[in-house]
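BUG: 3D viewer hangs when loading the predicted structure for this chain

Environment: internal workstation, default settings.
Expected: structure renders.
Actual: progress bar stalls at 90%.

Input used:
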Amino acid sequence: MRTTIRLAAASVALALVVCACGGSGGTSDGSASPSVPHASMSITAGPRPSTDATLSIVSPKNGETIQGSDVTLKLKLEGGTISDSASAELVPDEGHLHVVLDDQLISMTSHLESVLPDLAPGMHLLKIEFVANDHAPFDPRVIAAVSFEVPE
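Structure tokens produced before the viewer hung:
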């Protein structure tokens, strides 16, 4: 019974992520913003696609103190192709980016440069993951992370 409840809860959580993920995830000016949900997405079980892609965060740098409350995000993706549409059709090395700030998914995007606006003062942990077109991770996962500070 507990296993069934846990499996159901995990399925609902994954469905919420999939429904929340789609579109370009950014505004026309490159600033990060949540995307419009795709109700037509479905979740399929099966082996994950692999990729040789590597991802790095160019800016902000790990340990950097940012001036102001807007943070310019610059990423470098090698060996992968950014797609700006969600699909259940998986293509190795093709996907988009999930931007997670302080354990909150804040954007799903096809932009390698964007602005994270109006961040609160304090330490922040930024994680970016290159994910497949179905919004689930590659195997192995392609993740980059940095921490930075926004002073008061």
